[in-house]
Write a structure and sequence with these properties.
Elements lengths: L2 E5 L6 H9 L9 E5 L3 H18 L4 E5 L2 H5 L4 E4 L5 H13 L12 H25 L4 E4 L4 H10 L5 E3 L4 H12 L6 E8 L2 E9 L2 E2 L1 H6 L1 H7 L4 H10 L2 E2 L3 H4 L10 H7 L5 H21 L14 H10 L3 E8 L12 E9 L2 E4 L7 H23 L2 H9 L2 H6 L2 H14 L17
Helix pairs in contact: 1-2, 1-14, 2-13, 4-5, 4-18, 5-6, 5-15, 6-15, 15-16, 16-18
Length: 438
């Protein structure tokens, strides 16, 4: 039976939900679950909910906890990364500082100033993890759930751990909303998607062989009247031709069109700091729910969820073949995106490994909105690797939304404020810009 290590083992959302899913597979019921977290209280809670899940599922699994990351991954078969370096404190400041300059993020955890600074805090952790795995578990598969998804997955591959795939839940979740809007059973919808994380579009979306896009457009007024934030995705469908899989609130911050000022933001209904407010409230609710489950006041539901992680582990262990959408190095999977980028494409999994599917060329208007973000990813990663403040600033000023709002001197000042806010995470960085002082 496999050993599955969770780095960020105190995560209220991922640990409780993924462990429940793990025990729905016969091949995984005897797994050794290892939890590692830097927060002792979170780690203890994680252990208690996993043990309660084991007891209620009546499976022969066991749970272990670790403060030492290297020991937690020693000999592991799978490593699930669910960390948020900097926690809610920096989640908040990553949004509030850009807001002072007119950049109004909805989430800000995967792109823009917030995404880049979350990478600054996270990449050293991932590089250290990759180094430890090379020594004590070189054949382990990493399933990364942490944002910024594309940059984190790219960082792990760059650090030498090639058995890495990044996992999101947008693509396998959004088509279900569309099915509900159109009154179609979700299991009867067929789709193909491709792109980069959070800028990934349904290239095909059908029901019994019939294109669903005309039906979706016909429902626009009805849907937007109930959910005004969906005007963002309907505009993208009408003007670009495809529906994005990522949620409407998050989607609006990836382009220069929807968040130019508070008045325009209000017309699209995509709330500034929506992600922080939602996740903060959700985390509190989940913690209370977990405590109720631990105490036996609330049963644990073993209906299998829609996250891919447990199914991927089962496929690699049992050989049961299945498909999922994963974030992987491009390397020719999408012809008209940079080869070195990380893309999100269909993948097959079985006992022999994970096999991404080649998608060829995607429509050029889709590649056009993805490519700027890829260059942001690349500059940010190189900036972190070199500890180069100039490259970090260059990455942020290349962000489409930031560039639509701020002048170059404003961006420089904003980035300096973010550097100051994140000083504790950058002690080994040179204090001065290397080349381009203003």
């Amino acid at each position: 039976m496999p050993t599955i290590t969770f780095i960020g083992g105190g995560s209220a959302k991922f640990v409780s939900e993924l462990i429940r899913d793990v025990f729905t597979y016969d091949s995984l019921k005897g797994s050794c679950i290892r939890l590692m977290d830097i927060d002792a209280e979170r780690l203890d809670r994680g252990k208690r909910i996993v043990q309660r899940t084991i007891d209620q599922a009546k499976v022969p699994a066991r749970v272990e906890t670790y403060a030492d990351r290297k020991e937690a991954v020693r000999g592991a078969d799978f490593v699930v990364v669910t960390i948020m370096s900097g926690g809610f404190k920096h989640y908040k400041s990553d949004a509030e500082i850009p807001m002072q300059y007119g950049v109004l993020p909805t989430v800000g955890d995967t792109i823009g100033p917030g995404g880049v600074f979350r990478l600054i805090r996270t990449e050293p952790v991932l590089a250290g993890l990759a180094e430890e795995l090379a020594e004590v578990a070189p054949n382990a598969w990493i399933l990364n759930y942490s944002n910024p998804m594309a940059m984190n997955t790219w960082a792990l591959h760059a650090a030498g751990h090639k058995r890495t795939v990044g996992l999101c839940h947008s693509i396998q979740g959004m088509y279900r909303h569309i099915a509900g809007w159109l009154g179609i059973p979700a299991d009867e919808v067929r789709y193909t998607a491709a792109g980069i994380n959070h800028i990934n579009f349904y290239l095909t979306l059908t029901h019994n062989g019939r294109d669903l896009y005309p039906d979706l457009l016909a429902k626009e007024q009805e849907i937007v009247a109930k959910q005004p934030q969906e005007s963002v995705r309907f505009e993208l469908l009408r003007h670009i031709g495809y529906w994005p899989a990522e949620g409407a609130e998050h989607q609006s911050e990836y382009y220069p069109w929807f968040r130019k000022n508070p008045e325009i933001v209000a017309t699209y209904g995509a709330e500034t700091m929506w992600g922080y407010n939602f996740d903060f409230k959700l985390n509190g609710w989940l913690l209370n729910s977990i405590e109720d489950q631990i105490a036996g006041r609330k049963p644990i539901c073993f209906d299998r969820g829609h996250e891919y992680g447990a199914g991927i582990i089962d496929g690699l262990v049992s050989g049961t073949e299945s498909s999922f959408y994963g974030n992987v190095p491009n390397e020719g999977l999408i012809d008209n995106l940079p080869r070195e980028s990380v893309v999100e494409v269909p993948c097959l999994v079985n006992a022999n490994g994970i096999f991404p599917c080649r998608m060829g060329r995607i429509p050029p208007q889709l590649a056009a909105v993805m490519t700027p973000h890829i260059h942001v990813h690349q500059m940010a990663l190189e900036g972190v690797r070199r500890r180069d403040r100039d490259l970090i600033r260059l990455a942020i000023q290349a962000d489409p939304l930031t560039g639509a709002i701020c002048t170059l001197p404003q961006i420089h000042k904003m980035v300096d404020e973010l550097f100051a806010e994140n000083a504790a995470w950058m002690r080994d960085w040179p204090q001065k810009h290397a080349r381009m002082a203003v």
